[in-house]
User: What shape does this take?
Amino acid sequence: MRLDGFGLLVEDMGKMIRFYRDVLGFEIKEDEDTSNVYLIKDGTLFLLYGRKDFETMTNRKYEYIKGLNGHFELALYVDTFEEVDKAYADVISKGAVSVLEPTTEPWGQRTCYIADPEGNLIEIGSFNKPFER
Assistant: This one.
């Protein structure tokens, strides 16, 4: 098996599509009115799936956290410390919720956190050098 992508179960599909597309620059692959939406960022598949649709498909009910949550983080990398500050200011100006302003951590990373409209954490960080896989 290989990792193909990852996804979020979402309550408000339109709002989440607009955030990931318009604020973070993900490329959308389907129309906004579908229940299973694929977005791409840097060659990685990012799936948004409607909670109600998933419950119908699996014939089960699930519980969801409301507000800011800490179940996982989505990490985005930029090459320089200056880009962390610039990206943070840009996404905040477009409506992202601030969780942690840009900070240089003792381990040498400059990082900040924002939240998407449904409270999922997104980190923007850098070790002040180009990304290495």
Remarks:
- DSSP finds three helices and eight strands in the chain.
- The first strand starts at residue 5 and ends at 10.
